[in-house]
UniProtKB/TrEMBL annotation:
Keywords: Repeat, Transit peptide. It comes from Triticum urartu. It comes from the Eukaryota. One of its GO terms (cellular component) is mitochondrion. The gene is LOC125549168. Residues 72-183 form the PROP1-like PPR domain. Pfam families: PPR, PPR_long. The keyword Transit peptide applies. PPR repeats lie at residues 120-154. This is PROP1-like PPR domain-containing protein.
Length: 454
């Protein structure tokens, strides 16, 4: 952790110093850092000295969810004259996958080749998965062609990565082509393949009228799924890299896969199917799935309840959503995300009943000693700030919850909240308005001009 701390504290200073040193070395034709700093100064600023220490820093940045610093760490590594090894590139590309940074992933792939290291099948799996996360199926197809050109043998995981990467953009024809390739290779379909088929139809544009029927059909078919060719070492590197199957295949449960008790992994196909119902707003399909689920004597996990609640609320059925929440919370530990899902979804349309449910849910959440993190707080504040009538009670309550924990939500949420306050008859010297204006000014000053990102 000491290495990571130094990395983060000295990042800006170190990058500037190394850039100056590199420029000086290039013009003078001498060593990279020796002319720029004394030995003592170099040791004070440097945060890693060899490939093992740099690998530790890279691993720490990935664990801390700071993939945007990986390029900086890699550049510093080269400036230090430290030669990356295969494990270094595997760590870097896994980090870009987790952070959905496709451009960086291909940059590291190219750097790896320049150093005489050919990507192996596991690395291609991570790259294809990154394409899926970034919804770039064309790049995934190019990687497939690249693998074939370099004689890299595909394995079961590769086909499933491809299937789910293509599913992310709704390319059903190509998804079926991957299924045919798997069959030709003597591989059976497993639950992750059926999950990809469901996702492909959910994401298909224009939307297909038979999507609800397809979802139910694939769930039924999945009950007889067979294991794809998988031996123990197939997933050994994924385990070592702390990459779950859910994350590798871009399932909606990916961010919860490492949380004990949040999801029951044997319910993967229901997770994906019910999540699709919520995205599509198909209450009829949801209830057909829940009926199938009940007949199989399964128990709901938190993720299924979250998605069912989200579907009901998107369809305007607040009572069914509340009932589902109450039945689950009365018998099982209820995570904060489920409270947030109910509160946020209840605010859709800003009906009196919905705002009442949202407020009551947040108050209950506070009583249970649950706290909002920055992401939850941002999402809730952004939703509540759209209320055009009423006393702005829910938005104010969320702001106060965050202030109590010294949490500053993201700029768009603060802007929306400030705009909502200004639209109401509030004196210019009102303490709340003054406080929000100050936070907004600080965020704008720190973040600079707004930019549009895709």
């Amino acid at each position: 952790m000491g290495l990571l701390k130094n990395s983060l504290l000295l990042q800006g200073q170190l990058r500037q110093a190394m850039a100056q040193a590199a420029a000086a070395a290039a013009s003078a034709g001498v060593g990279r850092r020796g002319v720029a700093t004394s030995t003592e100064e170099y040791m004070r600023r440097n945060y890693a000295n060899n490939v093992s220490e740099y690998n530790t820093v890279i691993g720490s940045l990935i664990q801390q969810r700071r993939p945007y610093l990986l390029r900086d760490a890699y550049d510093d590594m080269l400036l230090d004259g430290v030669q990356p090894v295969r494990d270094t590139f595997h760590n870097l590309i896994v980090g870009t996958m987790k952070g959905s940074r496709l451009q960086d992933a291909f940059y590291f792939r190219d750097q790896m080749r320049e150093m005489g290291l050919q990507p192996d099948v596991n690395l291609y799996n991570f790259l294809i998965s990154t394409c899926g996360k970034c919804k770039n199926s064309d790049a995934a197809i190019l990687l497939l062609e690249e693998m074939k050109a370099h004689g890299v043998k595909l394995k079961g995981e590769t086909y499933i990565c491809l299937l789910n990467a293509l599913a992310a953009t709704g390319r059903t024809d190509q998804v079926y082509a991957i299924v045919r390739d798997m069959t030709a290779a003597g591989l059976g379909l497993n639950k992750f393949c059926y999950a990809g088929l469901i996702t492909a139809f959910k994401n298909k544009t224009p939307a297909s009228e038979d999507t609800p029927a397809k979802i139910l059909e694939f769930v039924q078919q999945s009950k007889g799924w067979q294991y794809v060719e998988r031996v123990a070492n197939d997933s050994a590197e994924n385990i070592m890299m702390n990459v779950s199957d859910e994350e590798l295949y871009n399932l909606p449960t990916a961010e919860f896969a490492h949380r004990r008790g949040f999801i029951f992994k044997q319910l993967t196909i229901y997770h994906v199917a019910i999540h699709a119902c919520a995205d599509l707003g198909s209450k009829e399909t949801l209830e057909a799935l829940l009926d199938m689920f009940t007949k199989e004597n399964f128990n709901y996990d938190a993720f299924i309840v979250m998605q069912a609640v989200r579907c009901y609320l998107r369809c305007g059925d607040i009572d069914s959503a509340v009932k589902m929440f109450e039945e689950f919370s009365s018998s099982k530990p209820t995570p904060a995300e489920l409270y947030v899902t109910l509160a946020e979804g209840a605010m859709i349309g800003y009906t009196p009943r919905g705002m009442e449910v949202a407020q009551a849910t947040l108050e209950r959440m506070t009583e249970r000693k649950f706290f909002l993190n920055p992401k939850m707080g941002t999402d809730l504040l952004l939703a509540a700030s759209g209320e055009k009538t009423g006393g702005y009670t829910t938005a104010n309550y969320i702001w106060d919850m965050l202030q109590t924990r010294n949490i500053i939500p993201a700029l768009p949420a603060v802007e929306a909240y400030y705009k909502g306050l200004k639209e109401r008859e509030i004196p210019s010297d009102d303490p709340r308005l003054v406080n929000v204006a100050r936070v907004l000014d600080n965020l704008q000053l720190r973040l600079g001009p707004r930019r549009n990102f895709q």
